[in-house]
Amino acid sequence: MAGGGEFKRDQNYITTRITADGRDGFPVEPGRYRLIIARACPWANRAAIVRRLLGLEGVLSMGIAGPLHDERSWSFDLDPGGKDPVLGIERLQEAFFKRDPDYPRGITVPALVDIPTGQVVTNDFARITLDLGSEWAAHHRDGAPDLYPEKLRDEIEDVAGKVFTDLNNGVYKCGFATSQEAYDKAYRQLWDRLDWLEERLTTRRYLVGDSITEADVRLFPTLVRFDAVYHGHFKCNRHKLTEMPALWAYTRDLFQTPGFGDTIDFEQIKTHYYGVHRTVNPTGIVPQGPDPSGWLTPHGRDELGGRPFGDGTAPGPPPAGERVPPLV
After folding, report:
1. At what angle do helices 42-54 and 125-134 cross, to 10 degrees?
2. Does the active-site annotation cover 172?
3. 43 annotated as ligand-binding
4. Strand pairing category for 33-38 and 61-65
5. Which of 13, 33, 41, 230 is an active site residue?
């Protein structure tokens, strides 16, 4: 927490990279690494989406932590016996401590773990998705989209940078503010950015260019959680997402696109935010709503043109063990 009641995110991550040439000591190898996510976490959601879109399921396994954690770390309470079936650990913390017994920072997802040694290689969420798109290219599925085309990179980074500061992280700055002044500032920045996005997406189907890019991957996890948790739990309540026509249609468009909605489990999302953040929600009561059925209604965004996967194709269905519950 920064001065004046402002929330300040610790952005010091383990920056070791898994690369095609193995220059950091960790070369790309099918079956060697395990991506650890939690369905609840928006930062981990990005990695799950990119892995799906690029078709890396067969070469990069994925472990899923449960939605609740304590001060120690995320735990694998969804798995039989409460242990990750590949790593054999109960808590993600164990993999961080194998890397550094004195690891001093938060235990975060997503994390890439080296299976032979059991140690975390990196939890640098922003770099992970970019490296999956570039360093792992030899293992992409046929028809995998280019999520970070060179000619659009400057614009992607500009747009995504604004979105991160004011929205991805902005909802947390609202929710975890401890002074009225800090909350009011974050709230204004958040809604200025949402209004900017609403205007931008009124006339274009995707954030940058005419296909899905890294910019959309970074925006979607925040928007899809907005009404379920950020609107009420984090006091981001000027409007609901469903009351912003372009953003609601845009997010439904992505939700109905293979690789996006099939990574979302609203019950785990709500269980995490309302159950873990006891300073914000002391009772730990998890709300029943909102009704999720609207996510499957027609969005009409096809009229704006664009091709979701560019010159590529849609990914196939997720592996059986990774499927999320259907909306009811």
Report:
1. 0
2. yes
3. no
4. parallel
5. 41
Residue type, 102: D
Q: Which residues contact 50 (CB under 8 A, 6 or more apart)?
A: 129, 132, 133, 147, 217
Q: What is the DSSP letter of 83?
A: S
Tell me the residue range of the domain where 195 lies. 1-321+324-328
CATH number at residue 95: 3.40.30.10
Task: For residue 297, give the amino acid letter.
Answer: T
**Looking at 33, 103, 148, 172, which residue is catalytic?**
172
Task: Measure the CA–CA gap between 115 and 120, rounded to whole angstroms.
Answer: 9
CA distance between the termini of the chain: 39
The C-alpha atoms of residue 144 and residue 56 are separated, in whole angstroms, by: 10
DSSP annotation string for 255-271: HTSTTSGGG--HHHHHH
302/174 Cα distance (integer angstroms): 34
Number of domains observed in the structure of the chain: 1
Residue 41 is a catalytic residue? yes
Q: The pTM is what? A: 0.97
pLDDT per residue, tens digit, the chain (328 aa), is 455 899 988 888 999 999 999 999 999 999 999 999 999 999 999 999 999 999 999 999 999 999 998 888 999 999 999 999 999 999 999 999 999 999 999 999 999 999 999 999 999 999 999 999 999 999 999 999 999 999 999 999 999 999 999 999 999 999 999 999 999 999 999 999 999 999 999 999 999 999 999 999 999 999 999 999 999 999 999 999 999 999 999 999 999 999 999 999 999 999 999 999 999 999 999 999 999 999 999 999 999 999 999 999 999 999 999 999 999 7
